[in-house]
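Hey, quick one: can you model this chain's 3D structure?
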Amino acid sequence: MESKIAKAIEMKYQPVGVLLANERPEDALQFKEGRWGCVAAMMSAAAKGKTVVFDRKTYGCIGGGTGLGFGNLYVHFPGGIEYFLSTGNDDFCSTEIGKNIVRNMPALAEGERYLKNPEIARKFIDCLPMVDVPAEYVIFKPLAQFTENEIPKVVTFLANPDQLSALVVLANYERETNLNVIAPFGAGCHSTCIIPYKEDELEKPRAVLGMFDISARKCVDKDILSFTVPYKMFLEIEDNVEGSFLEKHEWQRVLERNR
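Sure thing. Here's the predicted structure for all 259 residues.
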């Protein structure tokens, strides 16, 4: 499955499709059970040509499992996810269990400070569109490697600012409003999986900008953000490449400085 968009905006990395499946692909990258890993790093690997697979035992971290769509795993977060995202949990960290966990997760003591207080952090978690996908595996792989019988749930472009500009314009090209792209706060995997999954339920889904997650930024190039669309929106914007601004002089001038 080749992408006309990727060709028109001269993507450095391949568009990645997220596939829900009950069969594990051969020769796929996968986290080891019980080992920490970042889903954003696996998205980057898929954009570079790898096939990546996750299941309910190999999702890298609690946030990753939640973001991929394996249910609300935050209920298992030690000391409370609302404290970790905000100011930390001194009471928990002073217990023997807490002390042992802090040795490997120092941020648990002071919190990541991404949200002002635990109350706000709890409301953020409660707003997330929790999903338990009806499949054993969540698979990332380049869109070009999808077969005729495989349909991605969502498609992600890892793009630089110029390419993102083109994608945002294209997302609004056939719509009657100008609010067809959202940039929600959340983890990198929230913005490439569960939030776009939720958009897929809408008659007119929106594109989701992401990779604003400070903790995930080190897993992608410094000039890269993500742009994710449900598959039906991908088909819509793919169909609009021909005859659009992507064939005109202004966009060609922008492309020149990226070559």
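One thing worth noting: The CA atoms of residues 56 and 70 lie 6 Å apart.
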